Amino acid sequence: MNDELLRMLELYRQGFNCSQILLILGLEALGKSNPDLVRTMTGLGGGLGFSGKTCGALTGGVCLLGLYAGRGTPEEAEHDRFLLMVEELVQWFEAENCRDYGGINCAQILGDELANKTVTPRCGNIVISTYGKVKEILMANGIDPAGEQNE
After folding, report:
1. Other CB atoms within 10 A of residue 110 CB
2. Pick from 22, 17, 25: which is nearest to 110 by CA?
3. 21, 33, 108 from 7: Cα distances, Å
């Protein structure tokens, strides 16, 4: 079991949801912490506040791309391929990560289990694969997940 997977399991046991786990991993890879950002991500878990809408792993993955390639200050510009990175993640998520569930909504992925408001093993697999795909997309676009630009 690799260190990232162990860390994900630890965060899950601490009660963090899928989107929070993705951002915590990204922040830690940058050597940072940001409780306010992690707190903000709470609303994405369970498909937008456990409403069963778009999976928090997907929305969290998009936010993770934004952490690395988005715009944070008036002086910054988002990465010129940011929207293409988001599009790639969404297309992959639909085609590969959730093809067996009939859609990208938590209600489709979890069915009756959504009512428990807990992360399931199915969620864990989706979070793990989403994190890997985000890292792959970042590296393919000249962004080191450890924070160094490679362009």
Report:
1. 22
2. 17
3. 9, 15, 27
Distance (Å, whole) CA 70 – CA 63: 9
Q: Taking the model in full, what pTM does it have?
A: 0.91
What is the Cα–Cα distance from 132 to 87, expressed in whole angstroms? Answer: 16
The residues, any chain, with a CB within 8 Å of residue 60's CB and separated by 6 or more, are 18, 19, 20, 21, 22, 23, 41, 44, 127, 130
User: pLDDT digits over 50-91, tens only?
Assistant: 888 999 999 999 999 999 999 999 999 999 999 999 999 999
Partners of 149 in beta bridges: 143
CA distance linking residue 141 with residue 136, whole number of Å: 9
* CA 132/CA 143 separation, integer angstroms: 14
Instruction: Report which of 65, 73, 90 is spatially closest to residue 141, judged by C-alpha positions.
Output: 65
Radius of gyration of the chain (CA): 15
**Whether 34 contacts 27, CB under 8 Å:** yes
* Secondary structure of residue 149 in the 3-state scheme: strand
